[in-house]
Amino acid sequence: MAAPAPTVAAPSEQDISDAYIYLLGRLLVLRQEQLDFQKEGFQWNQIVHRDVGGVAWANPNLDVAYSEVWVAVDENSCTVFSVPPMGDRYYTVQFLNGWGETVANINERSFPQHPHGDFWVCLKGATVDVPADAVRIDLPGRTSRVLARVELGADPKQALALQHRISVKTSGTPKIDPVPATPVFTNDKLPGVEAFDSATVALDSEPDINPGMDVLQAKVRAVVKAIADPAERARVDSVVRQQAIPTFEKSFATAGERRNGWNRGDKDTGKYGSNFRNRSLVDMVGIWANSTDEVVYFKTDSDGTGKKLDGGNSYTLTFPKGELPADHVKYFWSVIAVDSKEFRVIPNPKNRFLINKQSALEYGKDGSLTLYFANAKPQGAPDGNWLPTPKGQNYNLTFRTYGPDQAILDGRWFPPPMVQVN
């Protein structure tokens, strides 16, 4: 008589929650990949130059012109990026893997001896002949999402001309697998147990380059096996919806360091190491975030007292002389308002979506800078210092600091608190 099959322990509630939040980061990237190919018409290794404000993801940077590419490489074929000289203008060509990890940046900081010219982007270990006057960049996987950013600055027309000189071609014909089919969901309706139905293809289609993630992958695969039992499937769905998702959503306000009502992203943003929770969070609220050596992000949805921002109220944000944003960045800073669900830019009659160093800013007699956030321009507020906000609606602010100084990197500098004035 055959021995009974060994009993497999059911995943604990903590393991289910960890597995779900870990997997969600990959599903968020795959969601965007499917949308790009199915709705945006992307083709592999073909660059798309976007108009200013012409991107369709969460928390876009409106200081830059974006170009986008989905790169595919294999053992015999590389993708060649040609980048023109950019002068003193900020630019970077960022490569991300299928988990939203930044794996490379092309700019004069990363490649001071070769800041422009040809860059051969290849699968790690591929045997290809790279020209002597080109730089080789190895990718950990067969696909990569690429964002080129060119600062608009005071001359947007020149920026757009430079943007369009970034070109892409392939050195051969790579073998490309179909885009994995996984759930396409909205941020306010995250998947429950059904997230695990496509977990195997999600994990198998892209390596996770971070150490220690094999433990999380094992937890995911254990849940996949467990939900073959209808009773376990129902239990997992309950844990996901009642514990994992609420915990994840609460982390919007608690992740990273909080001061003055602002959250500063974790220092590992962009290159997450073992911090899979932060990675999934960023993939949801600001997909394609770069690493902190390029930019530090501050976010808030509340004033300095903790009260939620309301677009019908008026708020001020005052920087004293000597602590202005421009004092702490090498390149540029900006602040934008986005909605609190999909984190998209909010339309307004003024068609003004950010305040930055190019705005017609007016400073106080003492050298301070006060920014205003309100549905209608507050009395006495300089027009260039005002950002319109949506009446009767909570919103989020994202404050970007490109080329952050050591005070920002160390966490010594934060934006001041938002102060309600009506």
Provide keyphrases for this structure:
422 residues; alpha+beta; Immunoglobulin-like; Jelly Rolls; 3 domains; six-stranded antiparallel beta sheet; five-stranded antiparallel beta sheet; globular
Structure overview:
- With 422 residues, the protein is of the alpha+beta class.
- The protein has three domains: 13-28 and 180-254, no CATH class; 45-170, Immunoglobulin-like, CATH 2.60.40; 257-420, Jelly Rolls.
- Helix content is 22%, strand content 25%.
- It is built from seven helices and 19 strands.
- It has helices spanning 13-38, 156-163, 199-204, 213-226, 230-254, 276-285, 406-409, and strands at 48-49, 64-72, 79-83, 91-96, 102-106, 117-123, 135-139, 143-151, 167-170, 257-259, 262-264, 295-300, 315-319, 329-339, 354-356, 369-374, 386-388, 395-404, 419-420.
- It has a six-stranded antiparallel sheet with strand order 10-11-12-18-14-15. It has a five-stranded antiparallel sheet with strand order 1-2-8-4-5. The chain has a four-stranded mixed sheet with strand order 7-6-3-9, with no helix packed on it.
- A hairpin with a 5-residue loop joins β4 (91-96) and β5 (102-106).
- α1 crosses α4 and α1 runs parallel beside α6 (276-285).
- The radius of gyration is 23 Å and the shape is globular.
- The mean pLDDT is 93.
